[in-house]
Structures are given as C-alpha cells and as structure tokens.
C-alpha cells in the first residue's frame, strides 16, 4: 500500500491531467497482471479551470490576495506548481464585482438570521465566510439568495490551523498560506456532470448549453487562506461579531459592511474533460446476476495522498487478496464489481455518470454498494443503510484494531461510552448493535443510494491525529501522509480487511444478511425528531413574534438605509403525523416477523427471498423524487438542501417543516407513510417465503 500510494501521489492527478490518465492505466495493468478482468470506461464531462483570479482590497487601503500555496522545503512534491491546479472553486461562474465586504460567519441560513437581528444586509455586498458548519457550496448559494454579489470562503485557524495543532511542516494542520480547493456545484439538486443530468455523459450524449446548467453557482466564489483573509477581515468595522462567530486570528472580528471594499474578478476555461473509471469484474459462480459493488475514487485535487489514495490503496489491496484466493480455486457466489472512480472531487462525476449509464442494469442486479474515500488512524466510521447495520456490527467484531488489539467493534463501543452524554451511555452498553450513521452525500455512494435505491455503506478509519489541516491543498501528499496520518499503513490494512470481509460475506451469503429491526428502530427515532422539530418551530415562531412586538430588533447600522424589521409570521398549524405513526408501527411488526423467520430459515426459497431483499431499498424510493429536486429519490435519506453533504433523514418532511411549508409537510408525511407501509408489505412477503 505504501508503494502504491507513493506511485499514485507522485504528481498531481486531477481530472484532465496527464497523471490522472496515467494512474488509471497503471491500475488496469496491475490488475490485469493479477489475472483480473479490468477495463477503463470513459465519460466526457464539463470541468472548468481558472483563467483569471483576482481578489484585491481597494478601500480603505490596498491589498492583493496571493491565492497561492508556497513550496515547503522538506516536502518534495509541493514544488510541482506547473502541474498543480491553482486555488479555486470548481463550477463558480465567471464574474466581477466591487463592493463593501460583510463577514457572515459560516454563511449558513442561521447566520443571516443573526445578521438581520443586527440590522445588517448583504444585498449588494461581497461576503466573506469561514469554511465549516456546512458544505462549501452552500455558502455562495445562501449568499446569492440574500442579494450578495460575490463570495469568499476562507480557512480560519480556529477550525483549520494553529489553534488546532502545529501547522505543516512542523505539524499536521493548515499553514498560514494553505487553502482548500473544492467544488461548489449545487449538488443538492443533482451531482455529476452539470450538462447531462440523469443520463450518462458518454461521448455522444446530448448536453445542455452551459447557460442552462442548473448546478453552477449564481455568483462568483473563491477560496483563500487565512493569510490572505486576515487583512480583509482586519479592515472591517461595524458591529463586533457575536462570541460564537469569533475565529483565532489576532484581530477583533467585525461584521461590516465596510469600510473594507473589495474588487473580485474570476474567469474560467469551460472545457470538456475525459474521465477514466477503472472497472473490475469477478463473475459469480451461482448468482452471477446479483452484483456486490465496491468503490473508491482515484482522482485528487492535487497529489491527493489522504484524499483519496489512502482509501484507494486499501481497495487495491483487497483486489490483490481476491486475486490470490482465485488462484487457490475460490470463486464468489455473486458477481463482484470493483471500481476506482475518476472525477469524484469536482462533483462525484465518475460514479454518477457510470451509475446513470448503467441505471437499468443496476436496478435489476445491484445488491449492495460499499464505498470508501480517505482513511487514517483511529476508529471505524461506518454509515449507510440501516438494513445493513446488524451485518456491519458482525464484520466489526471480527476485525482487530491494529493498535489496541481489541476488536474494531469493542474499541468503537468503548470510545462511544467515554464520549456519550449520560442519557446515551446505557444504550451503548446494552444495545446489541452499535448504531451506524445515515448517508447524505459527499462521496461516491450518492448515485447508488439516493438515486437508484441500492443499499449502501461508507467505511473508513479516522479520528486520531491530524487530517483536516491539509485537506484539498498541495500539502495532502505522500510526505504529509507518511509523517502525520497512518504512517505505517496498519489502518490501511484494517480498511482492506474490513471492506474485503464485507464484500466476501455479501458475495457468498446464501441468504443476504439484511436485517430490519434496527432499521425500523432508527426510522422511529427519525419520526420522533420530526415531531420535536415541529413543536420547536411553533415555539420559535411564537418567540419571534413576541420579540417583534417588544421591539427587540436593532435599527440598521447604515443611516442611509431605511430599517425594515422582520414581519410577524403566523403560528404553524399542528401537523398530522398519523400516517407516519401507522407506517412505522406496521414496519416494526413486519420487521420483527421477518427477522424471526430469518433465524429459522431454510435454503429452499432463498433465491426468491433474496430478490425481495434486494428490492427492499428500492421500495424506499419514489420515481417523482424529492420536492424541487427529482434526481434524489430516496424518501428516508438525502443530503440537505442547505447542508450539501450533511444528511437530512425523512428529508421531504423535515425540510418542509424547516422551511415552514406546512401544506407540503402534510403531503410528504402521507407520502412517506405510504412508503413505510409498502416496505412492511414486502417484508411480510419475504417472511412468508422463508416459512
């Protein structure tokens, strides 16, 4: 794994770079040398790169941002400047603006509510936001909704620098001039190629004009280091920010607007670039039409050692292990497909385009998709379909943590108990299965679970040592990884063991290891959360109306602007949660019946039962999709419209409540209740077959 990472991280390997193609061809040659059926599938996608980048303060003093990351002497690949993508945000639109600057904290909707309380508007301004609290693409999206002309996103050292730990090269965290590249595509609408929504970006695909692509930003946006951001923030006046907004720069943080005025100009080359997905197929000996799929991407923003190669080299090791087993005569019962995706970084391009191209076959044949991305030292982070929660607990109990020599399961349980609030410790000690997280978006599982309804898992180790400080910078390279992350690759081995064991068990199980009691238990928790959210919205509305009556809101800090206080809102109606309650009660009963029958199952009807189990995740989707974003079809899990990566569970209902769309909330409650009843019916059919 060390050798593979050193080779693949030797040069920048972003989409469209020569080394991206070279890595894909090297992977295919290596896999074929092991006797595996490997090939490259190509897709052609929109991938803009910078032509012009300028951010300068023109008032009250002059300052021009460098927007560059310097070479570090001890780091041998940090000097490859001619090969590196510069500091920028992919899928920002071209644009130019000169306007007063306003600091908006993390730039999420709640921050704009706080600005309104202070009487500060960003209309006609350029905003500067900290990285964190949401996915980066949400920040220009919300800024544009509030009338901003442009957006800057910077890494504050409180979250991502010397406040956390020593900075690179003395430590793992982001140095003064380190910056985070990244995509700002509006992926909560749809991921993948902006010009081919819903269909594969094969070379002859019909493409939208760029002017009609819905996932580009509405305003120009650029990232910068805290070294570049400090002079801009120091020049702001206006109200001092709330305590929770303050970073770790040696300045007093003010909101603005002004007197700092910023001129920003961005222009991009809007090119079509080729992707190189590496696909490996091991045919199944008994159930060849049932597919277990495993993936990790191979492209990086720059040298990409941690993200993604720490996961890719573990996946490669799994392939080596399977090739050795096949030489000894082993054949999986189900077909195994391994993928090294291209184009994940700009917007899940390679996996989305492959999944859309092969959508019909995947909906017929895909059993489970297992994903990884980055990997490091620490605990297993496992998220996914809760029908696989019990299965993953079994895998975790059979993998040894390389440092503590406990099982991965026991180490995670003990860590959870030590960190959990008092009201959760008892569950961690007594519940047979540790809970896994729900999936939103942010990696290559998205098309499989959110669009196609394929049960999915996302796996990776981490949580100890540094990691975030060099994320998407030129310093995420072999030197950094072997000094500050999984330095001896023992957690790379643990990931290969974990994912490889899961793949083998799924491929060879007579009866697929889906379990539904954990799932119904989790969905009941989500429904209880929705009830509390509804009650909280009602209480908050009543409190806001009281504050308006009492004149709590401040006048505008700009005497030239007429202050318009927030208007009162009607108190939300009481929602009828009965369809959800009826649905979850039916699901819980059916889950219990199926899981009981599963314990006594014979193999006589196993093929028919497995067909039902594969269908179980599909039943949780709706072809019409979520309101306003039909590409996302899963009714239980989705990325939030204003979180980007972060999951929203039962998203149609949750987001309707959050955004005070009460009629829509009632409609979505009915819709999800029907989905749960249909899922319960499927489990009853499966249980009857087992009996």
Features:
single chain; 691 residues; alpha/beta; Aminopeptidase; Glucose Oxidase, domain 1; Transcription Elongation Factor S-II, Chain A; 3 domains; two-stranded parallel sheet; 18% strand; globular
| % residues in beta strands | 15-25%
Shape: globular
Helix share, percent: 25-40%
Largest sheet: 12 strands, mixed
Going by CATH, the homologous superfamily of the largest domain would be Zn peptidases
Supply Rg: 25 Å
Distance between the termini: 47 Å
Mean pLDDT: 95
Low-pLDDT runs of 5+ residues are none
Number of domains: 3
**How would you classify the helix and strand content by structural class?**
alpha/beta
Helix count, per DSSP? Answer: 21
User: Would you report the number of β strands?
Assistant: 16
Name of the CATH class of the largest domain: Alpha Beta
Determine the CATH topology of the largest domain. Aminopeptidase
The assigned CATH architecture of the largest domain is 3-Layer(aba) Sandwich
What features would you describe in this structure?
It is a single chain. The chain is 38% helix and 18% strand. With 691 residues, it is an alpha/beta fold. Strands 1, 2, 4, 5, 6, 8, 9, 10, 11, 12, 13 and 14 form a twelve-stranded mixed sheet that branches. A two-stranded parallel ribbon has the order 3-7. Strands 15-16 form a two-stranded antiparallel ribbon. Strand 4, helix 3 and strand 5 (126-130) form a beta-alpha-beta unit. Helix 7 crosses helix 16 (490-508) and helix 20 (651-658) packs antiparallel against helix 21.
């Amino acid at each position: 794994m060390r050798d593979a990472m050193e080779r693949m991280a030797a040069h920048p390997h972003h989409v469209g770079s020569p080394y991206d193609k070279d890595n894909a061809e090297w992977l295919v040659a290596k896999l074929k040398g092991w006797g595996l059926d490997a090939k490259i599938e190509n897709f052609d996608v929109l991938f803009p790169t910078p032509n012009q980048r300028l951010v300068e303060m023109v008032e009250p003093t002059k300052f021009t941002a460098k927007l560059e990351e310097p070479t570090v002497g001890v780091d041998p690949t940090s000097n490859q400047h001619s090969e590196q993508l510069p500091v920028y945000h992919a899928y920002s639109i071209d644009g130019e603006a000169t306007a007063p600057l306003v600091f908006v904290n993390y730039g999420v909707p709640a921050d704009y509510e706080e600005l309104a309380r202070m009487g500060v508007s960003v209309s006609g301004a350029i905003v500067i936001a900290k990285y964190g609290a949401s996915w980066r693409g949400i920040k220009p999206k919300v800024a544009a909704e509030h009338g901003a002309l442009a957006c800057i996103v910077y890494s504050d050292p409180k979250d991502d620098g010397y406040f956390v730990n020593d900075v690179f090269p003395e430590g793992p965290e982001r140095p003064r001039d380190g910056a985070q590249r990244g995509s700002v595509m509006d992926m909560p609408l749809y991921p993948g190629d902006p010009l081919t929504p819903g269909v594969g970006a094969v070379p002859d695909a019909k493409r939208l004009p760029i002017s009609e692509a819905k996932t580009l930003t509405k305003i120009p946006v650029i990232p910068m280091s805290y070294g570049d951001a400090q002079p801009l923030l120091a020049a702001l006046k206006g109200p001092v920010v709330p305590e929770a907004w303050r970073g770790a720069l040696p300045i007093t943080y003010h909101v603005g607007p002004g007197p700092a005025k910023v001129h920003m100009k961005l222009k991009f080359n809007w090119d079509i670039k080729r992707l190189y997905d590496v696909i490996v197929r091991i045919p199944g000996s008994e159930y060849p039409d049932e597919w277990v799929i495993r993936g990790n991407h191979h492209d990086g923003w720059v040298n990409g050692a941690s993200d993604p190669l720490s996961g890719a080299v573990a996946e490669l090791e799994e392939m080596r292990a399977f090739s050795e087993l096949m030489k000894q005569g082993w054949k999986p019962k189900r077909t195994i497909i391994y993928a090294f995706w291209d184009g994940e970084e700009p917007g899940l391009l390679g996996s989305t385009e492959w999944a859309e191209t092969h959508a019909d076959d995947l909906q017929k044949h895909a059993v489970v998709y297992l994903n990884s991305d980055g990997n490091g030292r620490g605990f297993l982070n496992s998220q996914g379909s809760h029908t696989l929660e019990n299965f993953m607990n079994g895998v975790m109990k059979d993998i040894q943590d390389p440092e503590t020599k406990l099982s991965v399961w026991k180490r995670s349980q003990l860590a959870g108990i030590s960190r959990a609030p008092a009201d959760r410790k008892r569950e961690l000690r007594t519940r047979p299965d540790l809970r896994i997280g729900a999936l939103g978006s942010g990696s290559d599982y998205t098309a499989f679970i959110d669009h196609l309804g394929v049960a999915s898992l996302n796996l990776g180790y981490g949580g100890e040592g540094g990691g975030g400080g060099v994320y998407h910078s030129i310093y995420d390279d072999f030197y950094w990884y072997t000094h500050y992350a999984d330095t001896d690759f023992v957690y790379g081995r643990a990931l290969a063991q974990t994912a490889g064991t899961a793949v083998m068990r799924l491929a060879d199980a007579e009866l697929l290891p889906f379990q539904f009691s954990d799932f119904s238990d989790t969905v009941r928790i989500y429904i209880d959360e929705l009830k509390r959210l509804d009650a909280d919205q009602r209480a908050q509305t009543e409190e806001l109306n009281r504050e308006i009556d009492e004149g709590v809101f401040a006048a505008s800090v700009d005497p030239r602007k007429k202050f318009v206080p927030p208007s009162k809102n009607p108190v939300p109606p009481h929602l009828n949660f009965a369809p959800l309650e009826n649905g979850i009660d039916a699901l819980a009963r059916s889950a219990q019946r199926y899981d009981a029958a599963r314990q006594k199952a014979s193999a006589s009807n196993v093929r028919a039962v497995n067909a039902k189990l594969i269908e179980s995740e599909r039943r949780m989707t709706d072809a019409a999709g979520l309101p306003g974003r039909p590409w996302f079809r899963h009714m239980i899990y989705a990325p939030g419209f204003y979180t980007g990566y972060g999951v929203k569970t039962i998203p149609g209902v949750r987001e309707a409540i959050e955004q005070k769309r009460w009629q829509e909330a009632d409609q979505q409650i009915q819709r999800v209740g029907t989905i749960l009843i249909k899922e319960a019916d499927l489990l009853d059919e499966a249980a009857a077959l087992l009996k």
